[in-house]
Write a structure and sequence with these properties.
Blueprint (H helix, E strand, L loop, with lengths): L9 H12 L4 H14 L3 H6 L2 H4 L9 E4 L10 E4 L2 H11 L24 H15 L8 H12 L4 H8 L4 H7 L4 H9 L2
Antiparallel strand pairs: 1-2
């Protein structure tokens, strides 16, 4: 069985965010990290986001992001819910957007004449980010596994997790959940 992407704890996520704050494109990179860890979206889904998907016409961040079927792995449209912490982060980033054409990508790339990140370039972006921070075993998929594991740790039902992650099979969700001490400790406390 292939090794799965590392699930990050809060201290490791903080380390990534602190590193982002010291680098070029800090606001964009923080917003990217927060988007990934607070929504559980796939890297391809985040790369596909357009300004119109994330922002209302009054430039405020939406509470819900509607992913089109063609932008999801399962080819089924779904709604991604945006919590208040993420909304604030995205609003800060949105203030820096130079091009506000609703059809442009929400997350710009620093590459000249680029429409923004592709799934591949965003995957590479996270690979190098985690490498620079020193998180062995972390990849762009770490945020998705972390999101799902965090929900499981908090006792969120698997059907809700399936809905939030866009999974159709229980077995798929189960593969994402990192069975850890916190999860087991929470379980025995319920007895």
């Amino acid at each position: 069985m292939a090794k799965q992407a590392k699930v990050l704890n809060n201290a490791e996520i903080r380390k990534v965010l602190d590193y982002c704050a010291t680098r070029k494109h800090a606001s964009r990179n923080r917003a990217l990290v927060m988007m990934m860890f607070n929504t559980g979206m796939r890297v391809s889904e985040v790369a596909s986001l357009r300004i119109r998907d994330v922002m209302d016409t009054d430039s405020s961040i939406k509470n819900e992001i509607r992913l089109l079927a063609e932008n999801t792995k399962t080819n089924e449209a779904r709604t991604v819910f945006v919590n208040e912490k993420l909304r604030r982060e995205l609003q800060q980033y949105a203030k820096l957007l130079v091009n506000t054409n609703p059809n442009c990508k929400f997350f710009y790339s620093q590459k000249r004449d680029s429409d923004g990140f592709t799934a591949n370039t965003l995957t590479q972006h996270f690979h190098y980010l985690y490498k620079r921070v020193g998180l062995d075993g972390a990849s762009s998929h770490s945020s998705r596994r972390t999101f799902i594991t965090t929900l499981a740790n908090k006792g969120i039902g698997v059907r809700v997790i399936m809905g939030l992650s866009g999974h159709k099979a229980l077995s798929s969700v189960q593969c994402y959940i990192d069975c850890n001490s916190e999860l087991m400790r929470n379980a025995v406390e319920m007895v």
